[in-house]
Amino acid sequence: MLLLLLAALVYSLELRQHNRELAGALSRAESSERRERLKNYYGQIRLAEVLRENHQFEIMKETLTAQLPSASVGDLRGFEWRFLWAESIREPRRPSTNHPIWAEVRFSADGISFFSIGRD
After folding, report:
1. Residue ranges per structural domain of the chain
2. How many angstroms separate the CA atoms of 38 and 31, rounded?
């Protein structure tokens, strides 16, 4: 009987050691997965920034949408994602019609800004 009790105790200690090793391996795997997710996230954010600079807002919106979190993973999105998202969904700016008759309108070389001169 004492021998069975001793064998059960040894087996229990071995199981505890094995569980600690498994917990450590799981922790390392989760840490590695999070690092990979972060690298992917920041790569996608850099891509979205390039798309914003090139005025490709539809593709930028698709790139950012891919970063929406699922129920099984944590949310990595920060200020940078929210800023770029707001940029991707904003309406294009329209010129105000302060002048009853436009005399001249010129666009900047990058096509983003324009200048107007009215007849007043």
Report:
1. 2-94
2. 11
Using alpha carbons, list the distances in angstroms from residue 20 to 13, 17, 67, 85: 11, 5, 34, 43
Nearest CA among 74, 68, 120 for reference residue 97: 120
Query: pLDDT tens, 35-89?
Result: 998 999 999 999 999 999 888 899 999 999 999 988 778 888 999 999 999 988 8
What per-residue string of b and e applies to 54-79 under the rule 16 or more CB within 10 Å gives b? eeebeebbebbeebeeeeeeeebbee
Residues near 12 by beta carbon (within 8 Å), at least 6 away in sequence: none
CA distance 53 to 110: 10
**pTM of this prediction exceeds 0.85:** no
- CA pair distance 72, 27, nearest whole angstrom: 17
Tell me the three state secondary structure of residue 118: strand
Contact 47, 9 (CB under 8 A): no
